[in-house]
Design a protein that fits this description.
The protein is α+β, with helices and mostly antiparallel strands. Helix content is 29%, strand content 28%. The strands form two sheets. A four-stranded antiparallel beta sheet has the order 2-3-5-6. A two-stranded antiparallel ribbon has the order 1-4. The longest helix has 20 residues.
Length: 177
């Protein structure tokens, strides 16, 4: 069985690495943040709304990959169509490698980075110390030395009164963990 290239926390390392390799994406710097002390405009997402959307995505995603990717369509109400296609490619890679996730990931920090009328960018710290990606024999498929906690930038799209995951990439800037 091949060992996956590690880019983030234990199981998310595999998910992001496979997704990035399949989609050809690389981590990019989000738009510059211009903090303000004024209350958010009515169309601006709050930190709590972003955290809720991210936690929902992580919870359902954990379940999908605990099932080896077989239930990827459960992510449909939480992600953009482009993200769903990326998730399907990752799920196919899980199935091909005959691996699945055990345990769950946890968000330990979220901060808004920037937003406009159509999207929100947020930094987050993802803790995967209670999860792993294993083969049918229970052997870890995550590269040794992979950090259990890592910073990411999440891109969410605003639509129909909710936030949809549109990608999550390792953040190479200052850690938020």
């Amino acid at each position: 069985m091949p060992t996956f290239v590690a880019m983030q926390t234990r199981s998310w390392t595999t998910l992001v690495a496979v997704a990035l390799l399949l989609s050809g994406c690389t981590a990019t710097e989000p738009p510059e943040n211009h903090p303000t002390s004024d209350p958010p405009a009515p169309d601006q997402a709050t930190r709590e709304q972003v955290l809720s959307a991210l936690e929902s995505y992580i919870r359902v995603s954990d379940g999908v990959y605990q099932a080896g990717g077989s239930s990827v369509d459960e992510l449909t109400p939480l992600v953009t169509p482009d993200q769903l296609e990326r998730e399907r490619r990752v799920a196919a890679a899980f199935a091909q490698a005959e691996v699945h996730q055990v345990g769950s990931n946890q968000i330990t920090h979220v901060s808004l980075q920037a937003q406009d009328a159509g999207s929100v960018h947020a930094y987050l710290c993802l803790d995967g110390s209670n999860s792993d990606v294993v083969d049918a024999h229970g052997n870890s498929a995550v590269k040794e030395g992979t950090p259990e906690r890592q910073s990411f930038v999440a891109n969410l799209e605003k639509g129909d009164g909710k936030l949809l995951m549109d990608g999550m990439e390792p953040w190479s800037g200052n850690s938020v963990c």
